[in-house]
Design brief:
Layout: E1 2-3, E2 15-30, E3 44-45, E4 54-57, H1 64-73, E5 80-84, H2 87-95, E6 101-104, E7 113-118, E8 124-132, H3 141-156, H4 160-168, E9 193-196, E10 201-204
Parallel strand pairs: 3-7, 4-5
Antiparallel strand pairs: 1-8, 2-6, 2-7, 2-8, 9-10
């Protein structure tokens, strides 16, 4: 699962949590969308530009939309989350140019859909591994977390937009630096979260 800055997961006592990676959130829009003309030399879309069109937002119950709207408002912008859809419906609406949507940084895009970063990186998402204390996999939590990190690192190669974002921040040479990025941004408000897989708790450094 995952969470957002200021909306961190608070698992019950019988559930342990460990972060995997914090990533920037990008934008998915139709190939040929007029907004692509406003992409900067850095390959990013100005936040003011992406508040103009309608948005397609995934329904959720984790206050994600509240965080997303609040992030834009802190940049003195107001998005227009006009449509609620998920899965193939969301993809079809974006491809048809009905609206734009948020996308994971590792998304390679699809036919008819382009992925671009947002300037100033206003929106972040953290992937978190959860497991029950008394579950048989608990003793393997460290190995599972490392497998997730390895899988995520491999996925970076499929996203040109993410690779460009990393290069411009000097991280491309060592993608592992991404896994400590929250030490400075964006979770600095609540501390730098690390994890002791043996204990499964969130540690503030």
């Amino acid at each position: 699962t995952g969470d957002y800055p200021g909306y961190e997961i608070q698992p019950p006592a019988e559930v342990l949590a460990c972060p995997i990676v914090t990533e920037p959130t990008f934008v998915a829009l139709a190939a040929g969308h007029p907004l692509l003309d406003r992409v900067t030399d850095s390959g990013e879309l100005p936040i003011a530009a992406i508040t103009e069109p309608d948005w397609v937002i995934s329904p959720d119950d984790d206050r994600g939309c509240e965080y997303l709207v609040g992030s834009f408002e802190r940049h003195h912008c107001q998005p227009n989350p006009r449509h609620r859809a998920a899965g193939n419906v969301l993809t079809a609406l974006v491809r048809a140019g009905v609206g734009i949507a948020f996308a994971q940084a590792t998304s390679p895009g699809r036919a008819g859909i382009t992925i671009r970063a947002i300037a100033d990186t206003p929106v972040w998402y953290r992937h978190v591994l959860l497991w029950r204390r008394n579950h048989p996999i608990a003793q393997h939590a460290g190995l599972i977390r490392q497998a997730a990190i390895d899988s995520y690192t491999n996925a970076i190669a499929d996203s040109p937009a993410f690779q460009l974002w990393l290069r411009r921040r000097g991280i491309a040479g060592d993608p592992n630096l991404l896994f400590s990025l929250e030490s400075s941004d964006p979770f600095s408000l609540t501390g730098h979260y690390g994890c002791d897989p043996a204990q499964g708790n969130l540690l503030s450094a």
